[in-house]
Structures are given as structure tokens and as C-alpha cells.
Design goal:
The complex is a heterodimer. By secondary structure, chain A is mostly beta strands. Helices cover 0% and strands 52% of the residues of chain A. Chain A contains no helices and eleven strands. In chain A, strands 2, 4, 5, 6, 9, 10 and 11 form a seven-stranded mixed β-sheet that branches. Chain A has a four-stranded antiparallel β-sheet with strand order 1-3-8-7, with no helix packed on it. In chain A, strand 7 and strand 8 form a beta hairpin. Chain B contains no helices and eleven strands. The model of chain B has no long low-confidence stretch (mean pLDDT 94). Classes of the chains: A mainly beta, B mainly beta. The interface between A and B is medium-sized, with 27 and 27 residues.
């Protein structure tokens, strides 16, 4: 149980392109989804918290106009990197927490999207 | 001081060894503790989830939480080459869903 699917797994595109990443909880409903960025040999850096039906909460230093998040349903959140540039190249990972249970519930992660901007 | 401290390693052990991975934390409000395993170019996979102090065992994995010393551990018995990965500890105070992460410890189990 608690499977999270993230798509696509790999994206290579030219500078200036907008890239959309999908995150789906396959066998559970997730009120809250999270978007992380991870640099090589570093831990996960939380970018934003996405709540179904409301605006995402962005961490300090993360540009909300650059990283657009939409959480349209209890099983789907999307991250769009707008007008991507080489410095946006990174490993993006989503996670989801079960709708039931308290705030201490663990997060379940997708397999990540490796984004490379040329 | 970081809220969660974790030695990044790398840690290298022979197959069959007992592995001990550790984290310390500074905030006594943390109540929920997790261990995740992350293989290269993959997302983290939840291994163990514990609440408050005590031990929890699942197969070859044992998680320990000592809230008095703010110390959490993950033990791996009979380690296998397939256990080679980065192990991340994470914690949460329970007042919101945001996880506080350790840096991760890189483990290599050599056949």
C-alpha cells in the first residue's frame, strides 16, 4: 500500500521551456502532498506543501511564480517549472501523506524526476 | 546547530555485519521518527516509523528511539549488498506535516 507515482522520471529540454511533473497517490487519498528538490549527495530540501483545494505553501526562498503547484484532487498534484534554466536542473521528488491520521503520519515518496535543462 | 544531526559516512561493512546508523536531534517536541532508505536516482522508501521512545522491529531492521538523550538508531542485522544505499532519518513534532531531515548516511555492504 501507499504507492506514489511520479511522472516523468527523466526530462531533458532546452532553456526557456516549461516542464510539468505529475505526482499521484495510487492507492490512498492524500490531503497533503509535498515537493522536494535534491542536489547530489545532499538531503531533501522542501520546496512547498500542497493542500488539496487550496494554494500551496512555499518555503522561504522558493519562487512561487517559478514553481507552480496545483493540487486538483486528493490523488494528484502537479509541479510546473516555468521558463526553466540550467540552474533549475535537479532531482525533484514528490511525497504524499495519508488523508487519515494525524500530522505525524509518515510521507510516502515517488521515484523522482531528473530534470536537465540544456 | 542543525535540528537533526546525522553522520554522512560513508560507512563500509562486509556482508553479514550488523550495521548501526544513528541520528541526534535537538528539539524535545519531536515525537515521530522515521527511517528512509534511498537508492541512487530513486525516491526515499519508508523503512521504519516510530512514535515516542522505544524499539520497533521489522525483519532485519530495528529502530530505537531514546527521547531522554534525543538519540535515534537503526540497526540492520545480517546486512546484504542490496542494503547498500543512503539512509535518512526524519522527525516531526506532530503539529504540522513538515519533516525535519538528517543529511543521510551512505552505506556500502561489500560481498
Amino acid at each position: 500500500g501507499a504507492v506514489v507515482s511520479q511522472h516523468p522520471s527523466r526530462v531533458i529540454c532546452k532553456s526557456g521551456t516549461s516542464v510539468k511533473i505529475e505526482c499521484r497517490s495510487l492507492d490512498f487519498q492524500a490531503t497533503t502532498m509535498f515537493w522536494y528538490r535534491q542536489f547530489p549527495k545532499q538531503s531533501l530540501m522542501l520546496m512547498a506543501t500542497s493542500n488539496e483545494g487550496s494554494k500551496a505553501t512555499y518555503e522561504q526562498g522558493v519562487e512561487k511564480d517559478k514553481f507552480l503547484i496545483n493540487h486538483a484532487s486528493l490523488t494528484l498534484s502537479t509541479l510546473t517549472v516555468t521558463s526553466a534554466h540550467p540552474e533549475d536542473s535537479s532531482f525533484y521528488i514528490c511525497s504524499a501523506a495519508l488523508k487519515s491520521g494525524g500530522a505525524g503520519q509518515p510521507q510516502h515518496f515517488g521515484d523522482g524526476t531528473r530534470l536537465s535543462i540544456l | 546547530q542543525k535540528e537533526v544531526e546525522q553522520d554522512p559516512g560513508p560507512l563500509s561493512v562486509p556482508e553479514g555485519a550488523i550495521v548501526s546508523l544513528n541520528c541526534t536531534y535537538s528539539n524535545s517536541a519531536f515525537q515521530y521518527f522515521m527511517w528512509y532508505r534511498q537508492y541512487s536516482r530513486k525516491g526515499p522508501e519508508l523503512l521504519m516509523y516510530t512514535y515516542s521512545s522505544g524499539n520497533k522491529e521489522d525483519g532485519r531492521f530495528t529502530a530505537q528511539v531514546d527521547k531522554s538523550s534525543k538519540y535515534i538508531s537503526l540497526f540492520i542485522r545480517d546486512s546484504q549488498p542490496s542494503d547498500s544505499a543512503t539512509y535518512l532519518c526524519a522527525t516531526n513534532a506532530g503539529n504540522n506535516r513538515k519533516l525535519i531531515w538528517g543529511l543521510g548516511t551512505s552505506l556500502a555492504v561489500n560481498p
